[in-house]
Design a protein that fits this description.
The protein has 334 residues and is of the alpha+beta class. The protein is built from 11 helices and 12 strands. The structure holds flavin-adenine dinucleotide (FAD) and iron/sulfur cluster (SF4). The site of flavin-adenine dinucleotide (FAD) has 30 residues, from strand 2, helix 6, helix 7, helix 8 and strand 8.
């Protein structure tokens, strides 16, 4: 590990000024992702500005019925918060499906959202990787790609975003409050993440030195919600596929819904085609399957991840059945 300087921030503005002024500086929160990267040689900042104490226990009501979550709020605290459990259970389910108790005690809200891909080549500095070293190539395209993307990937990068919380935040229509050297701006979490395109080095639209200070949730969506994660082990494993879903019914018809896939793309994948197919319709088994198929029409598989298409389809249909009380029917082979 390369030597680095360490400074504990006492306020957000000075943290932003310090990091923005030094291209080799980085924010440090719980450190559960960044410190791994220091040890692996994936990241080598000259200065770490520790922001983990800023807004560490802030969960407060907003006048419009929403909730403001401080960026430093620990994953365990957020998952257990009574208001979150009562009104945003999707968030608790997503958080509790991730990592382990010890990690969740250290990991923060912003750090979780900004964790980097778990692609093995990215974390192995002896391998080429366009995300780590632009122009060096993407060995995952022809190599080990079981966990990799089937939606929105590019020839330059087929990585997936690993955060469970991010998928839930997109489904909840959350907004990141971001402080930069020029002041504050608000970024919907749905627009925070980038697809890789020809520049996979950048995961998000944030500029160097921009600090997430809080995440705001709108008033509860209502209806029913579920976060379901499919993975290789029952715990302590990243999603092969996950679904964050919220559905509001009225008179037997889907009044409104939000559907997001995790584990399928470089960003949480808002399943807008599936939403459009179901909004205003009666949720029959046929309609649920057609909606999932409409979303996955553009899926492009690699040598090792073709199983993700039926897995994503079946997971989405199964979650929607549960949320709309549709009984499962055998599939017609014809
Ligand atoms: C074994 C293991 C299993 C795991 N399993 C899962 C899982 O199943 N699901 C899941 O979602 N996650 C999982 N994780 C990832 C874990 O959730 C993340 O490591 C953690 O959430 C990162 O939060 P942190 O506060 O420690 O971030 P840090 O490691 O401190 O920072 C992460 C990144 O965010 C940046 N950053 C931090 N705070 C801010 C801020 N306020 N503004 C701007 N930039 C900031 C840092 O500069 C860094 O680039 C796992 C991790 C491990 C080690
Ligand atoms: S998928 Fe992306 S992160 Fe993985 S090796 Fe290719 S370029 Fe690197």
């Amino acid at each position: 590990m390369k030597p680095f300087a360490y400074r504990r921030a006492t306020d957000a503005r000075s943290a932003v000024a310090t990091v923005a002024a030094d291209p080799a500086a980085a924010f440090l929160a719980g450190g559960t992702n960044l410190v791994d990267h220091l040890k692996l040689g994936v990241a080598s900042p000259s200065l770490l500005v520790d922001v983990s104490d800023l807004a560490a226990d802030l969960v407060e009501h907003l006048p419009d019925g929403g909730l403001r979550i401080g960026a430093g709020t620990r994953n365990s605290d957020l998952a257990a918060h009574p208001v979150v459990r009562a009104h945003y259970p999707l968030l608790s389910e997503a958080l509790l499906s991730g990592a382990s108790g010890q990690l969740r005690n250290a990991a923060t809200t912003a750090g979780n959202l900004l964790q980097r891909t778990r692609c093995g080549y990215f974390r192995d500095t002896t391998a080429p990787c366009n995300k780590r070293e632009p122009g060096s190539g993407c060995p995952a395209v022809e190599g080990h790609n079981r966990h990799h993307a089937i939606l929105g990937a590019s020839p330059d990068c087929v990585a997936t975003h690993p955060s469970d919380l991010a998928a839930a935040m997109v489904a909840l229509d959350a907004t990141a409050v971001v402080l930069g050297p020029d002041g504050e701006r608000r970024v919907p979490i749905g627009g925070l993440y980038r697809l890789p395109g020809d520049d996979p080095t950048r995961d998000t639209v944030l500029a160097h030195g921009e600090l997430i200070t809080a995440v705001e949730l709108p008033a509860p969506f209502g209806g029913r919600a579920r976060y379901r994660k499919v993975r290789d082990r029952a715990s302590f494993a990243f999603a092969l596929v996950s679904v964050a879903a919220a559905v509001r019914m009225h008179d037997g018809v889907v009044e409104d819904l939000r559907l997001v896939f995790g584990g399928l793309a470089h960003r949480p994948w808002r399943a807008a085609h599936a939403e459009d197919a179901l909004r205003g319709s009666a949720p029959t088994e046929v309609a649920l399957r057609a909606a999932a198929d409409a979303e996955l029409l553009d899926a492009r598989t690699l040598s090792g991840n073709g199983f993700k298409v039926p897995l994503a389809r079946n997971t989405l249909v199964s979650v929607l059945r549960e949320l709309t009380d549709v009984a499962a029917e055998p599939e017609d082979d014809a």
